Amino acid sequence: MPFAARQRPRPRSPGAILGAQAQPLRPVHSPGPPRHAALPSSSPKLPPVSTTTPTPSGLTLEPGVPICQTDLPLDWYQDELKPYAEEYLALPDRTPESVLPWLDGYVRPAQEHFGDSLLLLAHYYMGGEIVQLVERYGGAVADSYALALQAARNPEKKVIVESAVHFMAESVAILAHDDQDVWITNPKAGCTMEMLAKDHMVLPATDQLIERYGDDLLVIAYMNTSGRIKSIAGSTGGAVCTSSNAHLVVDWARKQNKKILFVPDQHLGRNTASRLGMDLDALVTLPDPSVHGGNWTLDQVDGGLAALDKAEMILWGSSCGVHTIFDADMVRWWQARDWRVLIHPESPLEPVLAADGVGSTKYLWDQLLAAKPGDKLVIGTEGHFVRNARREGAKRGVEVRHLAEIPGRLSGGCGCATMSRNDPPHLAGMLDLLRRGEAPSLNHVLAGDAVDERTGRRDRLSEAERAELIGHARASLERMIEITEAG
Ligand code: SF4
């Protein structure tokens, strides 16, 4: 049964807005039959190489400096990976001098075994020294957009191993060629923003909005969504966006006079609306998914149906806990001391408006590389990224601080805890098990996989369902690429 046809609207109880717990993994609502051409394509359209090629981070492992990675408890590892974790935990310390020889013992044989067909990937936000470790073994480090393109762009790579969160690995799989396999070192590495926009939450909302607005509704899915949500966007004629091109994608939708459902990050949606000069009072934010899941009806939305009818853009209510801690007072505190403040647009509107520069992780890193000796930069984003930026800045005579690192404040800013669930034992174990032909199926990532980040339970689509999902999801990614390149 095709992906869309298998999903059926479930009965909704008006007023059952509370108690949205323990939702099933299976999608139970349908975005309806595709109202626009699905456009499955055997090979995805890709943007120019120059705009999406990962560039070396420039970071290096310092002798004697311990790997900054909190050890995970042994029972957090899959059974197959526990032996590697036990060995790692038994090392005398976490310095490169101890960790690297141990890691080499597993990574080098895997590299020799797979040769040029192996590709290692990691995201800039990775905790510990995974960024440096992956680069040390010839892998690529990039933002989520560039990562998503790496399988499609490198057809000679057949075994792709990603140390990042699940939606990133799934994006690689959506755009991969048929003979490429994508693996994630820890399938429980999720993104909290994405976890609050699962298809069983978003589909009921989309169903209701489509029922009311028909073809006028268009879904824009931020890159930080599962393939199932990207597929919903594609089925409405919508597109994926990233933090660097959200303004282009939203502008494209506005020019078609569409009512936009922006999923999942309410802050990126609001910041984009502000950048485009939209009426912010006319935005509607849907009920908090951490409280209500997808169990609500349109008349229960803040402002009711009248607000929804008036809204040019409707925001899903999710956000990233790492970025929501920032406020405008923090920005002004640093500016008053002559620091230049740069911030990621997953942060709330007020600090974004107050900052001196706003942009994606790539923008933030490029700003660091362009800074002159003596410059003082404050960066509002994920903690591991800022720590890496601080080390890189020190080499260039540029001072770097984290936006939340203000004396007297309780929080000095945090790293992405879920992404940090990828650590040296996960990397060593995954590569060794792959070499031996014993890699756990759970770590194999296919488009449409839905993983419960707490239990590791996975729901996998049938081949026919997956093919349909890939068609819609690729269409939404390809629209983003076309819009971005045209912009
Ligand atoms: S930093 Fe936030 S948005 Fe990025 S992966 Fe982590 S939880 Fe998700």
- Level of helix content? 25-40%
* Oligomeric organization of the protein chains: single chain
| Overall shape | globular
**Approximately how much beta-strand content do the residues carry?**
5-15%
What is the count of structural domains?
3
Write out the strand line-up for the largest beta sheet, numbering strands in chain order: 2-1-3-4-14
Mean pLDDT: 86
SS elements, strand count:
16
Number of helices: 21
Model regions low in confidence, pLDDT < 50 over at least 5 residues: 1-41
Describe the structure.
The protein is an alpha/beta fold. The chain has 3 domains: 33-189 and 420-456, no CATH class; 194-315, Rossmann fold; 328-402, 3-Layer(aba) Sandwich (Rossmann fold). Helices cover 40% and strands 12% of the residues. It has 21 helices and 16 strands. It has helices at residues 3-6, 49-52, 82-89, 96-114, 130-136, 144-148, 150-153, 166-175, 192-195, 199-213, 227-235, 246-255, 266-275, 289-292, 304-310, 328-335, 349-354, 361-370, 383-396, 424-435, 463-486; strands at residues 118-123, 140-142, 159-163, 181-184, 217-222, 239-241, 259-263, 284-285, 313-315, 340-343, 357-358, 376-380, 399-402, 444-445, 450-451, 458-459. A 5-stranded mixed beta sheet has the order 2-1-3-4-14. A 5-stranded parallel beta sheet has the order 6-5-7-9-8, with helices on both faces. Strands 11-10-12-13 form a 4-stranded parallel beta sheet, with helices on both faces. α19 links the parallel β12 and β13. α3 packs across α20 and α18 packs parallel to α19 (383-396). The longest helix has 24 residues, at 463-486. Residues 1-41 have low confidence and may be disordered. Iron/sulfur cluster (SF4) is lined by residues 125, 165, 191-193, 224, 320, 322, 346, 382, 416, 418-419.
